């Protein structure tokens, strides 16, 4: 999956479905709403509390705005903004919108700021979606708006951590990952070359295999801690040994920058490629971080103990839903916290169900 779009197969399925629909705005909106409702139902089933209730995009310090132009929006489903076909293709690799920036839109009377987690281009119209709005204020009525890219200044934290990985690090329900971890470990700041919709930095890029992370590793700046969750896309390589070798390269490179490295075992997959993840995890545990300033934390075994694990994924068994990320954070937060604080008695872990 590309960092600035949905997974290729995911996008392809959307297009195939839309070919069967009429081109009317009503049908388009109905489709999006049904997809959103289905995803929300799958993600929120049996949830005691949704992170949507407390994950908010807070105001950010800025140092200027870059005008993007006046664009016409059309009737869109909740969580999305659609643009008139006259606007053309303004999303994608060379599009106007990316998944890292803060944006502002104004109708001349009101303005609102937002971040996005997904883009799409369907039946001649561009869409931006999975949005978070500053202070919850949104502008969604169809019409002409002036759009701006807002330049922001990152807050400096006493301790910093950079999460390195693929789509599981940030995409889809992964947009709640850092927000939930912050509730668990509040005294650390998230940094990285990318920014999620709630303003947390990260170094995740969708679809990345470990070799692709190595290719972009020089873009990851020094951090006090690094958290690596990578390798589930390496199933095509069919060599767990090569995957672990690449993870060691990543870990050693980051360690030499001066930070401590926390490496997670891979999340179980619910498909035929799970056997590769199992073997990678065994090799990681055997290595145990020897030879670098690294620690291994085990996500795999605790997650496998959960009953009906497939309920924690929204797709064929690769990407967790909201409930899945809650379980992931419940497992990982105390382990990451211990790794950071070295078992300090002042460290306190709060259950997500109490948030």
Automatic annotation (TrEMBL):
It holds the Pfam family Lipase_GDSL_2. SUPFAM superfamilies: SGNH hydrolase. Residues 164-326 form the SGNH hydrolase-type esterase domain. GO terms for molecular function: phosphatidylcholine lysophospholipase activity. This is Lysophospholipase L1.
């Amino acid at each position: 999956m590309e960092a600035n779009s949905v997974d290729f197969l995911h996008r392809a399925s959307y297009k195939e479905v839309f070919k069967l629909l009429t081109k009317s705005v009503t049908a388009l909106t109905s489709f999006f709403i049904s997809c959103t409702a289905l995803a929300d139902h799958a993600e929120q089933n049996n949830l005691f509390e949704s992170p949507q209730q407390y994950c908010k995009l807070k105001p950010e310090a800025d140092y200027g705005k870059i005008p993007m132009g006046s664009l016409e929006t059309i009737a869109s489903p909740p969580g999305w903004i659609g643009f008139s076909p006259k606007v053309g293709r303004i999303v994608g690799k060379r599009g106007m919108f990316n998944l890292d920036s803060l944006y502002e839109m104004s109708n001349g009377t009101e303005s609102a700021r937002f971040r996005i987690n997904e883009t799409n281009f369907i039946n001649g119209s561009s869409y931006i979606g999975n949005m978070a709005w500053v202070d919850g204020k949104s502008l969604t009525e169809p019409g002409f708006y002036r759009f701006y890219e807002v330049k922001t200044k990152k807050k400096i934290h006493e301790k910093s951590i950079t999460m390195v990985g693929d789509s599981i690090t940030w995409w889809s329900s992964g947009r709640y990952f850092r927000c939930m971890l912050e509730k668990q470990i509040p005294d650390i700041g998230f940094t990285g070359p990318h920014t999620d919709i709630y303003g947390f930095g990260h170094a995740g890029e969708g679809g990345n295999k470990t070799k692709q992370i190595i290719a972009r590793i020089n873009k990851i700046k020094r951090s006090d801690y690094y958290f690596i969750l990578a390798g589930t896309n390496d199933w095509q390589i069919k060599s767990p040994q090569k995957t672990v070798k690449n993870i060691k390269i990543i870990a050693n490179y980051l360690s030499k920058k001066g930070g401590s490295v926390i490496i997670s075992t891979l999340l179980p997959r619910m498909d035929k490629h799970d056997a590769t993840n199992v073997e990678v995890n065994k090799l990681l545990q055997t290595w145990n971080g020897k030879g670098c300033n690294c620690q291994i934390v085990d996500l795999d075994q605790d997650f496998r103990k959960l009953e009906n694990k497939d309920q924690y994924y929204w797709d064929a068994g690769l990407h967790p839903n909201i409930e899945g990320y809650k379980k992931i954070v419940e497992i990982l937060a105390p382990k990451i916290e211990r790794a950071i604080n070295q078992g300090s008695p002042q460290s306190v872990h709060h259950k997500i169900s109490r948030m």
